[in-house]
UniProtKB/TrEMBL annotation:
<keyword id="KW-0732">Signal</keyword>
<dbReference type="InterPro" id="IPR014631">
    <property type="entry name" value="CREG"/>
</dbReference>
<dbReference type="GO" id="GO:0005737">
    <property type="term" value="C:cytoplasm"/>
</dbReference>
<dbReference type="InterPro" id="IPR055343">
    <property type="entry name" value="CREG_beta-barrel"/>
</dbReference>
<dbReference type="GO" id="GO:0005615">
    <property type="term" value="C:extracellular space"/>
</dbReference>
<feature type="domain" description="CREG-like beta-barrel">
    <location>
        <begin position="26"/>
        <end position="194"/>
    </location>
</feature>
<feature type="signal peptide">
    <location>
        <begin position="1"/>
        <end position="24"/>
    </location>
</feature>
<dbReference type="InterPro" id="IPR012349">
    <property type="entry name" value="Split_barrel_FMN-bd"/>
</dbReference>
<dbReference type="GO" id="GO:0012505">
    <property type="term" value="C:endomembrane system"/>
</dbReference>
<dbReference type="Pfam" id="PF13883">
    <property type="entry name" value="CREG_beta-barrel"/>
</dbReference>
<keyword id="KW-0325">Glycoprotein</keyword>
<keyword id="KW-0964">Secreted</keyword>
<protein>
    <submittedName>
        <fullName>CREG1 protein</fullName>
    </submittedName>
</protein>
<comment type="similarity">
    <text>Belongs to the CREG family.</text>
</comment>
Length: 197
């Protein structure tokens, strides 16, 4: 029986090590690398704010946003989730009142989970939950944010100028990784930024 369990565990680990987006997914014991990997391979995430809207004030409000931590390709991500926002957007209005938010990204949006038959809720279809705040990037970081976002989302360059778009980033304070059985793993921002995806 122990041999069968060991075989099953090894088979599950082998599935995790198969290429996703052209390179190998990190093993489950490397939670910080997994967080970097998932963010870098995702083009969008679910951003949850505390609503400031009439009738919803104080309630969680989740919305989809395009994001990028750098141009596509292995080892080219900074780990910083950049966004392109406008004050006209309902979630951005929430952030003007309270900049706290959470951001969830999942490998379910890549071919990886479908290829292996993983439901998005299956822990093997890794997802990461970031908590922190959204802030406008300063002038010295605009170039990085622009390159990160426009390399993955070229349509953004043509969005209406009168919407007053601006570059923002998610300042990460807490990270939770769900990439294997046994529950969430906590990764510190220091651990997260010290590794490459």
């Amino acid at each position: 029986m122990a041999g069968l369990l060991l075989f099953c565990a090894a088979a599950a680990l082998q599935l995790l090590l198969l290429p996703a987006a052209g390179w190998a997914i990190p093993p489950p014991e490397e939670a910080a690398r997994m967080a970097r990997f998932v963010l870098h391979n995702c083009d969008w995430g679910a951003l949850a704010t505390l609503s400031a809207q009439e009738g919803l004030r104080g309630h969680p409000f989740a919305n989809i946003f395009s994001l990028s931590d750098g141009p596509p390709g292995p080892f080219s991500g900074s780990g910083v989730p950049y966004l392109y926002l406008t004050d006209m957007e309902i979630s951005v209005r929430d952030l003007e009142i309270n900049s706290n938010a959470s951001l969830t990204v999942s490998l379910a949006q890549t071919p990886y989970c479908k290829k292996h038959g993983y439901d998005p809720q299956n822990p093997l279809c890794a997802h990461i939950i970031f908590c922190g705040t959204i802030v406008k990037v300063n002038d010295s970081e605009v170039g990085l944010a622009k390159k990160a976002l426009f390399s993955r989302h070229p349509e953004m360059e043509g969005w209406p100028k009168d919407h007053n778009w601006f570059f923002a980033k998610f300042n990460i304070t807490n990270i939770w990784v769900l990439d294997y059985f046994g529950g969430l793993k906590i990764v510190t921002p220091e651990e997260y930024y010290s590794v490459k995806p």
